[in-house]
Fold Bifunctional salicylyl-CoA 5-hydroxylase/oxidoreductase.
Amino acid sequence: MLSSQGSGADPGARGRVDQRLRRGARPAPTNPHSPAKTNHPLRAAIIGGGPGGLYTAALLKRLAPDREVTVYERNAPDDTFGFGVVLSDETLGGIEHADPTVYEALKAHFVRWDDIDIVHRHTRHTSGGHRFAALGRRRLLEILHDRCRDLGVELRFRTEAPPPDRLARTHDLVVAADGVHSATREAYRDVFRPRLTPHRCRYIWLAADFAFDAFRFEIAETEHGVMQLHGYPFAPDASTVIVEMREEVWRAAGFDELDETESTVRCAKIFADALGGRPLRSNKSAWTTFRTVVNERWSHGNIVLLGDAAHTAHFSIGSGTKLAVEDALALAACLAERPTLQEALTAYEEERRPVVASTQRAAKASLEWFEDLDRYLAQPPRQFAFNLLTRSRRVTHENLRLRDAGFTESVEREFGCPPDTPPMFTPFRLRGLTLRNRVVVSPMDMYSATDGVPGDFHLVHLGARALGGAALVMTEMVCVSAEGRITPGCAGLYTGRQGEAWRRITDFVHDGAPGTAIGVQLGHSGRKGSTRLMWEGMDEPLPDGNWPLVAPSPLPYRPGGQVPRELSRAQLADVREQFRAAAERAAGAGFDLLELHCAHGYLLSGFLSPLTNHRTDAYGGSPENRLRFPLEVFDAVREVWPDERPMTVRISATDWAEGGTSAEEAVEIARAFAAHGADAIDVSTGQVVSGERPEFGRSYQTPYADRIRHEAGVPVIAVGAISSWDDVNSLVLAGRTDLCALARPHLYDPHWTLHAAAEQGYDGPGARWPAPYRAGSRPPRTGRTDAPRPRLTLHGPGQDG
């Protein structure tokens, strides 16, 4: 629905289709008795007459006019559900290249606009520059019907498709474009292996007989809970209106007892201001719950899934029709250029799967934002609007600034950014420590210490990053005992010699990079210890010289790995004292901040997760009991850590495994540490059990930090594939985090923060170049890219001077 949140069509696919059509090329003749071995299927059946199926049919026929293409659609030609369709410029570009006739027909009926209106608590904020194009779904289908008929596609309306196995025997290619409830997919469930995930909101598609002048989001805070309206024009006199709310709100408001007409009238009353008192209308509209569809495979023999049959992405990023059209473009291109059908179908899936996965990640972020809308209601009005616009992480601070600089600057002013200061360079205070910007060099294990003593490598590694402009540089996990090391190369703070070596490093940071803080992360490896250096085999046991492991419960980290001893009460007391002693040494070594490592399956994390803590005493069982020992350690450390210096706690907010720590439990864990004096929670995820299944993606862990920040009311540090300064600006300005910790970007570029300032034209207190480096604060010149201008122009015969 919201095209500005979506990704573009694949330019390679649309370009290849375009080239094929321009050349007028024909595939080589093929053997009709080997339908699964030809890239030029002579007979193609399309199951489903929606936009994706129809556009596929038109492209297949256009590429090979002698091809027999049949579309089976069980509904009548003028039956349609929903009202308007929004298409992005990228998708339209693909259509224009592949079939100008369709593009010109669509173009004649587009309604175009630029603005998004966000109305919350009777205040409207408008952001421009978003470039939408929409038309009625019925009109779109009519255009595709006409195009298919012109090309010679056989359209069979009011006709159930024969069973897919029968079609597969009588046709060379079967395209299943039969929607989210695909019967084809279900017929071959054991092959496609679909996963259908329902979500927590109910929604209904309605229409209004007037055109909104912008894409409109309106929030209604009712006695039953929060409801939202998504509205946009699709004709000069008509708009789509989607009303959405959490399932429990829907039931509390009594919508579960209302019929279609009653629901429509009720929605019009709730959003009377947005509608100007005008009514809504329905079209076989029903309240439904969105389901995300993911398939492990998209093809089986000569049957291939397309559009919603293969994948779905929430309507709030305008993806359904868009993805189906882009699927059609890619499938047609692959069929045209691959030597066999199987290679073509494999190439189609390989090409589309990463694009779809990226879109689904963005859609998941968007739908979850709306599911948890009440979390953000108390945000300042402009920040709320900015948060909504950037919810999928595809529209970013920089992207929005280019679209509408005035709106973005107003959000920054409300946030408190001084003039010409990006959000990432605003200061942040933790207890007695003021950080000059929002960038943290994340803890990164270096495995380069000798007997736990940090050496020259650590001085150069941490010193270089301190000179690079980040507000806070964190050490790797520093172990509280020799037995608490992960590997023989891990650093420690369990001897005076180690403390003295760390003092050398903190002195350099404070003297050489004034304004940069350095923090220490204290931890104990637990059951994940006594392993090789990372580059010698991550989590692999040592070939010799292993030391005994301890953990909350006698469970190895990996099958066949070393089994740890379950800690006794006396041993718990010993470990607690090891943390206390290490904290005292850290204070003496001059660290500005201390972080307690309760994440990633190490010892304290092992107590928190039900997957790794099977104890039956006071330290196991309930969430409160599992928290007991980590809180005891925190209290012991806080007792000896100087009052003016902040303490943070890193947690794994999910184990990415069934039965592990839930997001709700993570909030309670954060609340408990905050109640004991934690100044911020460093929100990571996973690495608790070896069988985890993380959902990787750009800034994929930030939703957990966002939730903890708003529900637990504690400052947070977000981590996890945050790789650009634009991400940092976006997350901070939207209020999803207070600080951003980056690891790999700082390995790639120790001066990442200073370069981020230079690239944004910022030169202020949030990013001071060290005096010896100031000459490098601007990018160096490269070779000339311009040509010398002619010094003399001579005129030809008959020309005046």
About this structure: Confidence is low (pLDDT under 50) at residues 1-11, 22-38, 793-801.
